[in-house]
Amino acid sequence: MSSNPPADLSPATREKWLKLVEAVRSPEAEPSWRRRNQRYAVDATQVNVLFSPPDGHGPVVLPASLLEVSADGMMIRTHKAIPNETELALRMMFFGLDGLELIVLGHVVHCTETVGGYKIGIALDFPG
Q: Which is the most buried residue in 42, 84, 116, 123, by most CB within 10 A?
């Protein structure tokens, strides 16, 4: 995937995101009492993360794996840390949905080092 989205891919609306969550969701990733919105594990989803790092050297395109989705966010795993509050554009390809591509906007709410890289929690920012 390239860093520039095709002209026909604009950032997803909340409605489009919620339809996607419904389509790809699997059993809950954790008990619902822990979160405002239930989280669901996701399989076989490729993500490219586009952002401008704080050092001003950018933009950067970083490959990632989508781990979980919820109504207002997601968790990805990547090999590099991304600082909290960094604004992101994420281009996702859902292999289980005939290669559906989707662009979402968001910002980092936490970045935690883990085995094999970093788990990054992202709050989504929908247009409008």
A: 42
What is the reported pLDDT for 127? 85
C-beta atoms surrounding 67 within 10 Å? 19
Phi, psi of 105 (to 5 degrees): -110, 150
Strand partners of residue 105: 89
The pLDDT of residue 115 is above 80? yes
d(CA 95, CA 102): 12
Q: What is the pLDDT of residues 100-113, one digit of tens each?
A: 788 999 999 999 99
Domain ranges of the chain: 14-124
Interatomic CA distance for residues 63 and 71, integer angstroms: 23
Whole-number pLDDT of residue 109: 97
Options 2.40.10.220, 3.40.190.10, 2.40.40.20, 1.20.1280.260; CATH of 14-124: 2.40.10.220
Segments of the chain assigned E as strands: 40-41, 45-51, 60-70, 73-78, 87-94, 100-114, 117-124
